[in-house]
Design goal:
Elements (H helix, E strand, L loop, with lengths): L8 H4 L2 E5 L6 H12 L2 E4 H10 L16 H7 L12 H28 L6 E4 L16 H9 L1 E6 L5 H10 L8 H14 L9 H27 L1 E4 H6 L3 H18 L1
Helix pairs in contact: 3-5, 5-6, 7-9, 8-9
């Protein structure tokens, strides 16, 4: 759908949007570009938190930063038994909807910044891992993907199947904010209850979020593959490890664009 070229505005101005599942290194790469090469780093997860916390939850801004999204994960919470640190499923749904609205606003705001400053260059938009739940990669008029592709080169980070357990382990060690599409979340919740307990207050919230994360990994890989195919390019995990600077990233992106053009 999106015709890529090294002549595109996004590539010429070095404006890149990194997409992919949580734990693949979007923020790691973005921070490296910001610290080592003085690039602008726009973190969608951080902007989501700022939007959610600016009024009723101002106390959650304390200690909240790009490198520490714990307060956002804590705000979303985990459905299940209150005695195990969980919240009601209905409250969980409410917070999920707040996150969804904030993520849409935060993502489109990155595009607005670029449009208001047409000469803005050397910028990386570090998107949330749940962006794939907000878009339809088959719709050529999808608002978010259209806006992103107009202003950035869309780059999907991919990993081999063997990397999935690593992502799960990283999530267990440091849970990140997770957003689920509502119908998918409801189905997960009911299926989990069928195999554990039919009583919401008896559900172990920690077990459910791990169960949910594993399900999201399977679901999201296919969506991100489609986004890459229709709207941008992909860089694999091995390539990411070789990137030491902005120059390395630019070279990798240029090679991926040329390779895609030749294959079309």
């Amino acid at each position: 759908m999106k015709i890529l070229s090294i002549e595109n505005t996004g590539f010429q101005l070095k404006r890149f949007a990194l997409l992919g599942m949580s734990g693949l290194g979007k923020t790691f790469i973005s921070r490296k570009l910001a610290e080592k090469d003085n690039w602008s780093h726009y973190s969608v997860d951080y902007e989501i938190g700022k939007l959610l916390f600016k009024r009723k939850y101002k106390n959650l801004l304390d200690g909240f930063e790009i490198a520490n999204l714990t307060n956002l994960a804590n705000f979303l919470g985990k459905p299940g038994s209150p005695s195990m640190g969980g919240i009601s499923f209905s409250e969980y749904l409410t917070r999920q909807k707040l996150h969804r609205d904030a993520e849409i606003r935060a993502t489109l705001h990155a595009c607005l910044l670029a449009e208001k400053s047409p000469d803005l260059s050397h910028m990386v938009c570090d998107t949330s891992g749940s962006i794939c739940e907000l878009v339809n990669p088959f719709d050529e008029n999808d608002k978010i993907l259209t806006s992103l592709s107009k202003n950035f080169v869309i780059i999907c980070l991919e990993a081999p199947d063997s990397m999935y357990q690593v992502l799960i382990n990283r999530f267990l060690a440091k849970p990140k904010p997770m957003y689920y599409k509502e119908d998918f979340l409801r189905a997960l919740w009911e299926n989990f209850k069928n195999h554990t307990s039919n009583v919401d207050d008896q559900i172990n919230p920690d077990e459910f979020i791990v169960y949910g994360f594993k399900a999201l990994i399977k679901r999201r890989k296919e969506i991100f593959d489609t986004i890459s195919k229709n709207w941008g390019i992909s860089l694999n995990f091995e390539q990411l490890h070789k990137i030491k600077s902005a120059a390395d990233l630019i070279d990798a992106i240029q090679i991926a664009i040329i390779k895609k053009i030749k294959s079309q």
